[in-house]
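[Meeting: bench + compute handoff]

Bench side (C.D.) handed over the final construct sequence. Compute side (W.E.) agreed to return the predicted structure before the next meeting so the bench team could plan truncations. Sequence as handed over:
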Amino acid sequence: MSDLTIPSPFQEQDGTPVFKEAWQAEVLAIAQSLIDNGAISGMDWAKALGFALRSVQHDEGRDNIAGYYDAVLLALEAVVQADCGVDMGTLDETRQAWVTAYETTPHGQPVHLNLPR
């Protein structure tokens, strides 16, 4: 038996993964949904994630769980751009719209996203 402590989110509680933040589960669920619906291939996802993880490992201080999820997000953005035809400008506009919506929503109220058209 090993004394190795498995870092969260790879631990399980009651048979389900434990995530530090909801977005961590959501980004993985989005990737899986895109694969399941044929928008991206599992092979493209694996390649993009591997590339992103290697880049994170080379950055001092990012070879940890936070760095892992940064890599997951980078990989998702890469495959959405490459396989779904979403350009970086659209991703940036959507990201900024989320930031604006989040920052201007009163505490306890639902966040409403208004995308630029």
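W.E. noted at the follow-up: Residues 65-84 form the longest helix (20 residues). C.D. will use this when planning the next construct.
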